[in-house]
Amino acid sequence: MSKSTIALVAHDHKKAELLAWVQQHMPIMQRCHIVATGTTGGMIAQETGLQVTRFKSGPLGGDQQIGALIAEGTLDALFFFWDPLNPAPHDPDVKALLRLCSVWNVPVACNSATADLVVTSPRFLSVDYQIKKPEY
């Protein structure tokens, strides 16, 4: 059985919150193939020992690299702890990433409360549940 691929992304002011969330859900995270933007992925790998495929930093193209996985149909969920109070210079990239999740019906959690609900759902990581992908 192949592992579900999830992406972990966090803006600077949300990195500690994402790390704490990952640590809280280690048994689930260990069952996933994790991809992440550069700095976030390095922090998660170093602090948890999880294997993380690291892309570029978000502002340097990492958001688009994750977006490509969504468009290719190979990303199962996005956990993007973004900071709504501090605008980022790559805000258009962030919006494009969230838009792709809606276009391709990919579950996305932007805060720990929603992320908790996603990973504790009986359908998360279930081989019996297949996300319906739209046909355009």
UniProtKB/TrEMBL annotation:
InterPro entries: Methylgl_synth, Methylglyoxal_synth_AS, MGS-like_dom, MGS-like_dom_sf. It is an enzyme of class 4 (lyase). GO terms for cellular component: cytosol. It catalyses: dihydroxyacetone phosphate = methylglyoxal + phosphate. GO terms for molecular function: methylglyoxal synthase activity. Coiled coil: none annotated. One of its GO terms (biological process) is methylglyoxal biosynthetic process. The active site is at D63. The keyword Phosphoprotein does not apply. Transmembrane segments: none annotated. Its EC number is 4.2.3.3. Pfam families: MGS (PF02142). Belongs to the methylglyoxal synthase family. PANTHER family: METHYLGLYOXAL SYNTHASE. Catalyzes the formation of methylglyoxal from dihydroxyacetone phosphate. This is Methylglyoxal synthase. The gene is mgsA.
